[in-house]
Design goal:
The structure holds two protein chains of two kinds.
Chain A lengths: L1 H4 L12 H11 L2 H11 L4 H12 L3 E10 L9 E4 L5 E3 L5 E7 L3 E5 L6 E4 L4 E5 L9 E4 L2 E4 L7 E4 L1 H5 L7 H4 L7 E4 L10 E4 L13 E4 L2 E2 L11 E7 L2 H4 L10 E6 L9 E13 L8 H13 L10 E2 L2 H14 L15 E3 L4 E3 L5 H5 L4 E14 L2 E13 L9 E14 L4 E17 L8 H5 L11 E2 L2 E2 L3 H7 L2 E20 L2 E20 L2 E5 L5 E2 L1 E2 L2 E2 L1 E2 L5 E2 L7 E2 L1 E2 L1 E5 L10 E24 L5 E24 L16 E24 L3 E12 L8 E12 L13 E15 L10 E2 L1 E8 L2 E6 L12 E14 L4 E18 L13 E21 L5 E17 L24 E5 L1 E4 L15 E6 L2 E6 L25 E3 L21 E6 L3 E12 L2 E12 L1 E2 L19 H4 L4 E4 L5 E5 L27 E2 L2 E12 L2 H6 L4 E15 L33 E11 L1
Parallel strand pairs in A: 1-7, 13-16, 18-20
Antiparallel strand pairs in A: 1-4, 2-3, 2-5, 5-6, 8-9, 10-15, 11-12, 13-14, 15-16, 17-21, 17-65, 19-20, 21-22, 22-23, 23-24, 24-27, 25-26, 27-28, 28-38, 29-37, 30-36, 31-32, 33-34, 33-35, 38-39, 39-40, 40-41, 41-42, 42-43, 43-47, 45-46, 47-48, 48-49, 49-50, 50-57, 51-56, 52-55, 53-54, 57-58, 58-63, ...
Helix pairs in contact in A: 8-9
Chain B lengths: L1 H16 L1 H5 L7 E2 H4 L3 H8 L3 H4 L23 E3 L17 H20 L6 H26 L14 H4 L6 H18 L11 H22 L3 H21 L8 H6 L9 E5 L23 E3 L1 H6 L21 H7 L2 H6 L28 E3 L2 E4 L15 E5 H17 L7 H6 L1 H5 L5 H5 L25 H13 L5 H8 L19 E3 H4 L13 E3 L5 E3 L9 E4 L25 H9 L16
Antiparallel strand pairs in B: 2-4, 3-7, 5-6, 8-11, 9-10, 9-11
Helix pairs in contact in B: 4-7, 6-7, 7-9, 7-10, 9-10, 10-11, 10-16, 10-21, 11-16, 16-20
Classes of the chains: A mainly beta, B alpha+beta.
Chain lengths: 1184, 612
Amino acid sequence: MLAKSYYTTRHNTTLLPTIMISILYKTLLLPGILVAATPSMTGRETGLVAEHATTAAIQQITSIRGRVVDQNGEPVIGAGVFQQGTRNGTVTDPSGNFTIDVPSGASLQVSCMGYEDVTVTASNGMLIILKEDSEILSEVVVVGYGAQRRADITGSVASVDVGKTLESRPIADVGRGLQGAVAGMNVRVPTGEVGSDPIIKIRGQIGSISGGSSPLILLDNVEIPSIQLVNPDDIESITVLKDAASAAIYGSKAAFGVVLITTKTGTGGPKLRVTYSNNFSLQNPAREINIGGIEALQYTYDAQVNRESPMPAGGFWRINAESLEKAREWQRLYGDTVAWNDPVVYGRDWYFDGIDKYGYRIYDGFKAMVREWAPTMTHNLSVSGSEGGNSFNVGLGVLDQSGMTKPAPIDDFKRYNASISFTSEVNKYLTVRGSAMYSDRNKRYPGVGTTTADPWLYLYRWSPLFPMGVMERDHYLQEPAYELMASNTDNLRNRYFNLNLGTTIHIMDNWDFQLDYTYDRQMTDQNSSAVYYNAGENWYNPIAWVENGSQVYVNERGEIVDSSTEGSMPAYTFNVRRYLNSNNTEKSDYVRNYSRNVDNNTINAFTTYRLSLGQGKQHDFKFMLGTNIVTSSWSSYKIRKNGLIEPENPQFALASGEQFIEGTDRDWAGRIGFFGRINYSFAGRYFLEANLRRDGSHKFPTDLQWKWFPAFSGGWIFTKEAFMEPVRNVMSFGKIRASWGSVGDQTVSSSLYKSVLANGQSNWLDANGKVTTYGTPSLVDADITWQMIETLDFGADLRFWDDRLGLSFDWYRRDTKNMIIPGESLPSTLGASAPRGNYGNLRTNGWELTLDFSHRFQSGLGINMTATLADATTMITKGADWATPWEDRLLSTDYSTGRRYGDIYGYVTDRLFQRDDFVYGDDGKIVRENVIYRGTLRSTNKQNTPNPVYQVEFENGDKLVCAPGDVKFVDIDGDGYISSGSGTNGNPGDRVVIGNTTPRYEYSLRLGADWKGFDVSVFLQGIGKRKIWGSGQLAIPGWNAKEGALPKTFTTDYWYEHYDSEGNLTDYNYDAFYPRAWDLGGSNTGFTMQTQSKYLLNMAYLRIKNITVGYTLPRKLLKRIHLEQARAYVSLENFFTFDKLRGLPIDPEAISGYSMFSTNYNLGRTGTGTPMFKSTSLGLQLTF
Amino acid sequence: MKIKILPILAILATLFCACDKVLDRPSPTEAEDAKYWTSAEKVRLYANGFYIHYFEGYGTGWTHNSAPLLDYTFDDNVVHMSTQGQFTRSVPTSTGWGDNYEWIRKVNVMIDRIDNRMTDILTQEEYGHWMGIARLFRGLEYARLVNSYGDVPYYDHEVNNTEKDELYKDRTPRSVVMDNVYDDFEYAFANIRLNDGSQYINRYVAAALICRWALIEGSWQKYYYNNTSRAAKFFDMAVSCGDFIIGSGKYDIVLDFRSLFSSSDLTSSKDVILYRKYDPAQGVTHCVASYCNLSEPRAYGPNLDLIKAFICTDGKDWQTSNLDDTDDFSLENLVKTRDSRFEASFYHKLIATSKSCYLYPVKFISRDASAPLTIEEGEVKGGAVDVQYTSTNNTNGYPVLRYAEVLLNWIEAKAELETLGQGVVNQSDIDVSINKIRSRPIAEEAQRLGVRETAPMDLSSLPNDPARDADVPALLWEIRRERRMEFVFEFSRIIDLRRWKKLEYMDTDANDDLLTGTWVNFPAECSAQLKSDNVGKLRIKTKDGEFVSYDGTNGARMVGFFYPKENLGRLPFLNVPNINPYLTPVGSNTIVDYSNKGYKLTQTEGWPDASN
C-alpha cells in the first residue's frame, strides 16, 4: 500500500515541490540525515528545536528499544518515532522495531501515513499499537509544481488511491484502471483491441470543438504521449487536477485538466527491499455476439419482397424461397451432424444455378474468429534501498497479453518496462538526482493489408451463408478467418525512454530552487506486409468441378455420383486463385515500414520561498516562481517495397519490386511558460492562492504568441472555528472552497491561423507516376485569436464521525470563451466550408460527488466504501449562427446557439402501422390516394381514419410507401403530415430532441472488506444516460439487408406476415419491436427508419468492473521463509455488464468508427470492432 | 549564498534569451498561401488537382462518380431488371451544387494568384498558358453547372466569407454566364501551349473540350431556349475547335473499337487526345472492367430500342436496309449485320448473367478476358475470370478525350449550323468525320464472327428511317445515331437527350422497347435455362407482342425478346405539373435559408418554390 511506503509527519507538509518531497521522504528514513533535512522542510520549527535541544542536554539519555505494530499485530514499517518537540527521531525497520536515544521519561510521538498519531512515554521494550487512520486529510497530495496537505487544498484536486485502484487487477494499463476512479474523470474503453489507449476526458466530453478536449498527462512533470507506456506498478501517486485554478500553472496545454503521475523512488532502508507481483488471466468476450441464423436469411428475403425488388435476395450468396426452404431442411438433416468447421460440400451446402449461388448451410463466424480463454500475464519486480544520503529504485515489468483473434498465428501485446532512479545528497545545500525510464510496447497483429477495414468487419458484415473458418475439399476459401491465418504478423512497436537530471539547491532553510531537465524520445516503428493468399474464390461465380477432364456429378447430399443417377447434378467448385487483398497484380505483395521519432526537451525550473509572519506566526506565505520550456521535433517516413522474394519473411532486402516513399513529415514545436504562485494561509483555517502564468507557443502568429493566464482559489476550514466546537463530534472536518481560473487552449491546429495548401498525390499518372498536387488554400478567418477556458468551481469537503465518513462535493461551470468553431453556414457558392473563427462560447455545468466510508470493528473486520457520481452538460451559448434569429437557426448546424451539446433531433415513434390502419379495395390490395405535399402530387396508401397523418416525405410514390409494419410517427405539429419542416428551430416539422449522445451520470461504487488476512472488494462503474443513433448493420435494422449480417435481436423481433404459395397467412409477428424487413442499402436513415425515439440505442450501462478476493499470509508464517509480505488473490475483471441494448452485439462503451488505427474504422459502423473481453485472473504479491 | 544564486540567475537569463529561438518554428513542410506562388512549376502542381476531377475515366478503386457503364445507366439505352431509374420528382431539401463551387473557388484562386502575385515571376508565355489552363477549367465548371441548373450565380473571382451580398446573390442569367464561359474558352484556346508534355493539357485537349461544351450549349440554346443567334455563336465555336484539331493532322482513327477501352497504355495513340492511365504498381486501378467480365451478374443491360438503333452494315437502318434478314434479331445475325461497334460493345453470345436483357456489355474489358470461360447455353459452364478482371484489379486505361468524339461533335455542329442557314455540310465533311470512323479497323476476332465494315455514309442517299422524328432532319438523325452507337454507356447519351429536348425517348409508357431485352431462342440457344428453377421466372415477348412465360412444359414456345416480369417502367415525368426533367431544382431549405438572411434564390424554372 502506498500509504505505508513512506513516512511523513503531520506538520511538515505544506507546499513542497513534487520531486523534493519524495526525496525527502526517503532521506528521512535515516536518522542521520534527519537533522539536516528537517529544517528545510519546516522552517517554522527550527526555533523550537533549538529550545528543546538546550533542555535535552542536561537530561540523562537512554537508549530505548520498541516495536510498532498495527491493530492486527502486524509490524508497521517506516513509522516515524520522534522525541516530542525535537528533531530527534528514527523510523521503524521492516519488523517494526526501532531504537532511539532519549532522555528518560520523554514523550515519544509515533506517526505513520495511514495511522493516527500516538504520543506515549518512552520505556524500553515498549509495544506501540497504531490505529489505522481512516481519514485522509493529512495525506500529501502532489499538485502542480508542489505538494499540499489534502486539508489545505483549495482547488478541485482528486488523488487516486493507487493501491485500491490499480493493484490486483488484470488490466493492461493505468488508463483502464482509472475508469470510475475519480468523479468527473470519464474514461472510455471503446474496443477490446489489445494495446489501444482508452479515451480520457475530464469534466464533460467536450471543452472545445476545434481542440483536443483531452487532459494533459504528465509523468514526473513531463508530458507523455500515452498513458499506456507507464507500468502501473511503477506508480507512486496519481493526482487529477480538475479545475482551472489548479491546472493553470501548467499553462495552455492544461486547458482540459491534468493527470499527474509520479513514479516510485527509493525506499526501504539499508536492507534491500524487493517486491514481486504477478497476475495470470484468461480473457473471454464480455458479451455474447448473437448474429442471426436462418431468421436472418428470412429477413433478407422479406426485405426483398417488401421492396418489390426482383429475386433472388442477398449479395454474393443469394436467397430465394426455394433456397430458404432448403436452408431450413439443412438444419433438420445436418444441423446436429455437420461440425462448424467441416468442409463445404457442393450439392449439400450450396447450389449454383448458372447465374447465382445459393447457400443452404449456416456458418458460425464467431467460432471461427473469436479466441476464447486467451491468456495474459504480468510480472513486476522492484528493488529499492537507501543508505546515507543516497537512495535508489529499480523497477522491471513485463506484460504479455493475448488478443482476441482466433485464427491469427500471433495476436498479442507485450510491454516491457524498466526504470531506475537515484538521489544523492551532496551536502546540506545540494541534492542531485537522476532517473531513466524505458518503455517498450509491441503490438503484434495479423497483417491483412489494412487496419481501417479489418476482418472483424467481415465477421459482422456478410450473411451466415458466407463460409467462415471452413475449407472446401482440400483448399481454403477467401474469407476472414483464412486470411487472418495465412497472413504474416505485423507489428506496431512504441518505445519510449527518458533521461532526467535534476538538482535541488537549499539556498536557505525556507528557500530552495529546483531545476530538472528531461530528454525523452518516442519511437514508433510499424512493420507491415501483404502477401498473396491462395484460396477458393467464393465471392464470384464458381467454376465447373472437373476431375481428370470430366465433369463431376453429385447428389443432394453432396456425394459424388454417376451422372446417370437420379437427382444427380453437375458439381461446381470455387476457383482456387492467388490473390492479394489490396491490389492483385503480379509483384504487388509488399513490405512496408512506418517510422516516427519524436525528441522532446523539457526544462522545469522553479524556486519556492516560505515566510511566516505575525503573532504566533499565524500568517503563512509561500511564493513560487518558475519556468517551463518544452521543445520538440519529430520526423516520420513511410516506405514500401513490392515483390517479396520470401513472402513469409517480408524484408526490404528480400524484395525485388518497385519501391515507394509513401509519405514523410518533419516538424518542430516550442513552448515557453513563466509562472508564479502565492499561497497564503491564516491560522491553518483560511487559505488563499493566486497563480499567474504567461505562455508562449510557436503555433500562433507572432502577434498572438503570448498570453496571460490568471487563477485564484480560496478555502475556509470552518470546523476549526470556535463556534463549530459543539458539532465537532459529528462533523469532524469541514471546508468550503472556491476557485476561478482562465487557461488558453493551444490544442487547436496551427493551420487555423494561416492559409495552407494541402499537399498530396493525385491518382492521375503522368510519365513519372502519380502527380503531386497542392489543394485550394484554406480559408482563414481574419480575426482569429486564442480560445480561453475559464472554470469557476465551488466545493466542500466534509468529514463526519471521527473522519470515518467523508463527502466531497464540487459544482463547476466551465466556459469556453471565444471558442473556435466553423463560421456561420454560408451558401455553398462560397466553395469552401466557412472558415473557423472565435465565434463560439460553450458552457459546461457539472457537479461531482464523492463519498467514502471506512470502519474497523472490534472484531478486526474492516469495511470500506467509496462512491462517486458526476454529471456534466454542455450548452453552446454562442454558435456561429448567433446573429440569426432563433427560429431561423438550422437544426443541421452542429453547434447552433442555445443548443445542448449532443442533442439528437428526431421523430417521435408512435407505433408500427398495422393492417387495419389502411383501406383495402375489392382486390384485397390497399387503396391508393393522391395528396399534394409541398406542391407536388404524391400517391400514397389510403389510411383508415378520418384524420390521416401522411408520411409521404419518406415515400417515393412508387414502392417506398408506408404499409403495415412500417413505423408510424407522432404528428407533433398536428398538420397532418410528418415532415422535416424547413429544418430550423422555428419550423422543425415533427422533429424534437429525442436524446443526447453525452455520457451522463457516471457513477462508481467500490466496496471492500478485510478480516484476518482475507480481503474482498467489488468495483462497479456505470453510465446513467447516453443515447446514440447508431451506424451500420449492428445498430440499424435493415441497414444493409442484402449483405445479410443481422443481429439476432433484429431477426427475431421484426414485423412480418408470411404466406404460403396459395396466399394464406401462415405466420405473423404483429407485436414486433422492429418494423417490417427493409433494406436501407447501407444508409443509417431511410424510409421510415428515420432518426427516431424508439430505435435510438440506449447506451446506459452498469459494469461490475472488478471483483477481487485476496488472502494475505500471516507474518509469523512468512518469517520462516524470509518473506515480509505475501498475498494471493483471485480477480474477475469486466465480468458482468447490465445494459439496455436488447442483446445487440454492441458494447455500451462503443464509439462508432473508433479504433487505435483509424477514425473511420470499419466504415464507421457501430460495434464492428474487436470484441470487448472479460478476464478471470490469479495473482501473487510478494515482498522480501 | 550569493555564489549559489548567481548560477541560478545565469541559467534563468539563458532561458529567457532563448525564447525567440524556441518560438520561431515555422513548419518546414507546410505550404502557406502567402509563400507558395513562386514558380511556374508550383502553378502546375496546383493545377494537377483538377485532372482527376475533369478526367475521371474509370474512377479509382471502387470510387467513381462519372465512370462509363457504372454511372451512365440512366438513359434510353439501358433496361434495368426492376423499375427503371426515376427522374427527380420533387424538390429536394438541399442543393447539390456545393461541389461545383468548390472547383470554381479553386480555379478563381488560381487566376487571382497568377494575376496578383506572379506577374514578375512568369514569362509572358507561361502566364498565357497557365491563365489559359485556369480559364479553361473555370469555363468547364460553369458549363457543367448551367447544363444542370440553367441560370447559376456567377463569380469570376475568389469570394471571401465576409462578402455576404456576393455569396447570397441570386442566379445570373445563363446567357451571361455562358458569354463569360465563351470568353474563357477563347482565351484558353488562344494561349494554351501546343505541347506541355505527355498527360498534360495542351491546346488540342482544350479544343476538344471546348468543342464538346460549345456543341452542348449551342443545342440547348436552339432546342430548349429557341435562341438561334446564341446557338449559332456556340456551334461556330465548336466547329472552329474541330477544324483546329482535324486540321492539325495529329490525330487519326487507327484502332479497333474495343482496343480504345481495353488497352493499358494509349497515351501516344493517334485515336486519343487525352488518356487516363492505370498502373497497379502505383496502386492505381479501377473496377469497371469487373462489371464486364461475363461472370458478374448484371441487372443493367442494353434494351431493344438501342439494339434497333444500330445501323446495318449497308449504312441503312434495320427497317430500310437492303440486307437480308435484318429483322432477324438473333444475336448471331445482329453481330453479322450491324455496325461493328455492336459486336465490340456486347458479348456475342447470349448470357443469363445479364439479367434484364441477356445481352452482356463487354465494351470496357479486353477480348482476352472471356478466353478462359466456357460459355454454353447462356451460361458460364467452366473456367474462371482472370484476377485482373475482378474486383478493383482492373488496369485498362480510358480514353477521356478521343478523336472520334471531336469528329462527331464537329459534324453535328456543322449540320446544326446548316439548319440555321449558316454554311452547308458537304460529302467531304462526312468523309473526314463519320466515314472516317466507319472505316475504323475491325478486330480479328470480330472478323471471324462475321463482323463487317459499315458502308460509308452518302449525303445524297441518306437512309429514310421510318422511326425518325419528323422534326429532325435526316442528316442530324443519322449523326445522332452515330453518337448513340459510338458512346453506348459513356457520358453523353443523357446529356444529348436533354440538349436535343428529346427526353420523351425515355418514356417507357410510349415505347415498350425500352423495357425489352434481346432476342432469345431458349430451346436453341439457352436450353440450360429451361429448368425447373426458372419456372414462372423466364418470360419472352414474341414479335407479335404476345408474352410467354415459362411453365416447365412450354420450352419450345420460349422464342422471342427476353422480357422479364421485373422489368418495369418509370413513373411519368413529362407534362407533370411542377416537374421539369430538363433542369435540376435547388433545395427548398436553401431557398428558405436565403430568404431568412434577407436574400432571394430563385427556384429553377419548372419547379415549385418551397412551400409547406
